[in-house]
Amino acid sequence: MATLTVRGLDEETRSRLRVRAARNGRSMEAEVRAILRDALSAPAEAYGLGSRMHARFAGIEPGDLPLPSRDDAPRAAVFDE
């Protein structure tokens, strides 16, 4: 079994870890093992946002979406002060 040392842990984080461990009836070391196990056992997302968007709209053909009228000439934006 491997040993891991965490240096420079601030007092607030250590205190919160201690409280969390006590609440769960574990030692701080056992609590850290549980946190790491839970964090690393979650499946990684197979797709990022762009891939999910592409998959969602992949079946839409270009002619399926109505385009707005392009009759107006381009104009500069006006910002109220």
UniProtKB/TrEMBL annotation:
InterPro entries: Arc_rbn_hlx_hlx, FitA-like_RHH, Ribbon_hlx_hlx. It comes from the Bacteria. Residues 61-81 are annotated as: Disordered. GO terms for biological process: methylation. Keywords: DNA-binding, Methyltransferase, Transferase. It holds the Pfam family FitA-like_RHH. Gene3D superfamilies: Met repressor-like. One of its GO terms (molecular function) is DNA binding. Residues 2-40 form the Antitoxin FitA-like ribbon-helix-helix domain. This is Arc family DNA-binding protein. It comes from Streptomyces hazeniae. The lineage of its organism: Bacteria, Bacillati, Actinomycetota, Actinomycetes, Kitasatosporales.
